[in-house]
Amino acid sequence: AVVTVGKISGGTRSNIIPEQVELIGTLRSFSVEDRARIHASVRRIASNVAEALGVTVEVQIPHTASYPVTVNDPALTAQMVPVLEAITGPGRTILDPPNTGAEDFAFFAEKVPGFYIQLGGRPPHLSAAEAAPHHTPDFVIDDSGLGVGVRAMAAMALHYMAAHPTAR
Question: Which three-class secondary structure string do you get for 106-131?
Answer without folding.
Answer: HHHHCCCCCCCCCCCCCCCCCCCCCC
